């Protein structure tokens, strides 16, 4: 395949991104971006979750297995969590998610965690547009084989000791 046709395919590729947004901050910021008429890439499908720290690991794996080219998690800034420590838990899990996804052959750039408060609609716009361009440059996700994780296996993988020896 020539470089011209590769460039043409890359330009035609539109990434599919799944975003899990905290109800109290990032989802509200996305709503603010919409009501403020801020334009961002339509490639993202937003799923509202109550807290970024309560994101079930199976959902991230399922998103990639079902064809997502990228996954974005949005939560409250550290110290501002409605549930006090949910975003700290999300950060610890994120580090474990990264190693699990690497084991599955998924580039780390395809998985992102962002802290976005309810008043930062412009940051939602910026992050979504940046991630869309970043994934577009990587091209479609090509998984040769994805381990078939059962719910218990994923929970056990992530239920152990977290970053710096802390329990999740």
What does this structure look like?
The chain is of the alpha/beta class and 168 residues long. The protein has one domain: 3-Layer(aba) Sandwich (Rossmann fold). The protein has helices spanning 3-12, 26-35, 57-65, 86-103, 121-138, 151-159; strands at 17-22, 44-49, 70-75, 111-115. A four-stranded parallel sheet has the order 2-1-3-4, with helices on both faces. α2 (26-35) links the parallel β1 and β2. α2 (26-35) packs across α5. The longest helix has 18 residues, at 86-103.
List the helices and strands and how they pair.
Blueprint: H1 3-12, E1 17-22, H2 26-35, E2 44-49, H3 57-65, E3 70-75, H4 86-103, E4 111-115, H5 121-138, H6 151-159
Helix pairs in contact: 2-5
Total count of strands: 4
Q: Which architecture would the CATH scheme give at its second level?
A: 3-Layer(aba) Sandwich
Could you list the spans in which at least 5 consecutive residues all have pLDDT below 50? 158-168
What's the domain count? 1
What is the helix/strand order?
HEHEHEHEHH
Strand content: 5-15%
Classification by helices and strands: alpha/beta
CATH topology: Rossmann fold
- Ends: how far apart? 47 Å
The neighbouring-strand order within the major sheet is 2-1-3-4
The biggest beta sheet reads: 4 strands, parallel
Mean pLDDT score, rounded? 86
The helicity comes to 40-55%
Count of DSSP-assigned helices: 6
Whole-angstrom Rg: 16 Å
Q: What is the 3D shape? A: globular
CATH top level class name: Alpha Beta
